[in-house]
């Protein structure tokens, strides 16, 4: 008769046996990295729930491919230089996200309002990154929020970047529900507004998405002028008027150029 403890171990082993080999290798690598020292097959087996023969076989594969090496003073294995170098490259790959956020920090310090990095998705424009203003009164739109294509500054910058035939088709495919006092609900009016956005190089949200909220946005473009993302800031109308927001467009444009360099060249 199997004990409760033995039964749990058997269930775990059975579950682990259905994990593909490549994922088992990643499990071993994860545990080696978490421990920060060489581990024996028994230790890895105990922590992963994989049988020792499987651990021996997978560790041998890691050694043969240069991702693990034997500990000189013991019987365990540890990450090799190749694996450590790969880990460093993965970590360095996140540097652009850090640099991007630092650009937003600089812009936010200049405009003294909440600054957003926004990209288009099927369901609307998504806030990917942001720096909140330090004012006690602010309008909060969390990272991950989606906003409509027809009534936010960041969205209008994106739609205006489309060539005219695509822009017209795109706009006519949209439903235009009214969200706030100044939401544009006519396709022709929206197309005319987008024409102006394209000409002047920035977009304004004058209480179009939320009552009492003003915003301005500029495109982040590559070296060929193709749209990459939107850089925007917003604030309550009690603190910043549309004209005041527009007066800070130059700060956004400078930030957009810095973000372009981070995105395309990895340097801010």
Can you describe what's shown?
- This protein has 268 residues and is of the alpha+beta class.
- It has eleven helices and eight strands.
- The protein has helices at 4-17, 21-35, 41-48, 52-64, 81-93, 95-111, 153-161, 164-173, 187-200, 242-246, 249-265; strands at residues 68-70, 77-79, 114-121, 124-131, 146-147, 203-206, 213-221, 227-236.
- The strands form two sheets. It has a six-stranded antiparallel beta sheet, with helices on both faces. The chain has a two-stranded antiparallel sheet with strand order 1-2.
- β7 (213-221) and β8 form a beta hairpin.
- α2 (21-35) crosses α4, α3 crosses α4 (52-64) and α6 packs antiparallel against α11 (249-265).
Please trace the helix and strand order, writing H or E for each element.
Answer: HHHHEEHHEEEHHHEEEHH
Percent of residues in beta strands = 15-25%
Overall form: elongated
Count of strand segments: 8
Major sheet characteristics: 6 strands, antiparallel
* Proportion of helical residues: 40-55%
Q: What are the segments in which pLDDT stays under 50 over at least 5 consecutive residues? A: 1-15
Structural class: alpha+beta
Radius of gyration: 26 Å
Number of helices: 11
Strand adjacency order, main sheet: 5-4-3-8-7-6
Instruction: Give the overall average pLDDT.
Output: 84
| C-alpha termini separation | 65 Å
Features:
268 residues, alpha+beta, six-stranded antiparallel β-sheet, two-stranded antiparallel sheet, elongated
